[in-house]
Amino acid sequence: MRELEQFLLELGAGFSFIARQKRIQIDSDYYYIDLLFFNRKLKRLLAIDLKLGDFKPADKGQMELYLRWLDKYERQEDEKSPIGLVLCAGKKRETAELLALENSGIRVAEYMTELPPRKILEQKLHTAMEQAKQEFQNRLEPQQEIKMMNRHVNSISGRLSLRPP
User: Fold this and answer.
1) What gap in Å lies between CA 108 and CA 94, rounded to an integer?
2) Distance CA 53, CA 121 (A)
3) Of 83, 5, 91, 11, nearest to 47 (Cα)?
4) Domain limits of the chain?
5) For the segment 15-70, what is each residue's pLDDT rounded down to a tens digit?
6) What CATH architecture does domain 2-159 belong to?
7) Does the pTM exceed 0.70?
8) How many angstroms separate the CA atoms of 165 and 59, rounded?
9) How many CB atoms lie within 10 A of CB 35?
10) CB 69: neighbour CB atoms within 10 A?
11) Which of 54, 65, 95, 143 pairs as cysteine with 90 (C-beta 3.0–4.6 A)?
12) SS3 of 92, please?
């Protein structure tokens, strides 16, 4: 219970835990959403899929399936469409860019099981800042919800220290 409490605190304010390994059925197949939360500020569900390896295009398709199911069967009338976060060991920037994830309500973030050496951490931070500047310059009018979601994703990926099961 303490681990769940700590995880929720790392996510930030407004998150409520709904389910772990949420089982959904589509046709005769069963799927499992790793973690499901509700955010009171965003007024929407957040599905989190944990991956041990690098992000792959199939991960987007899987998350889209989850989000469409949640939208159809779980979303309440006063809620906005659900959003998804794929937490993986590695994120291939061009792959994620070509999949146009920013238009789908899906974000990808890397997790670390242990902190890398200081020099690598500084390099990753510098690269992330440059990418953020570039993305900001490329967007003329970012939507407020996407900005809020990106802040949460960055906050989550920056503070989480998940261990693969």
Assistant:
1) 12
2) 20
3) 83
4) 2-159
5) 888 999 999 999 999 999 999 999 888 899 999 998 988 899 999 999 999 999 99
6) 3-Layer(aba) Sandwich (3.40)
7) no
8) 18
9) 20
10) 18
11) 54
12) coil
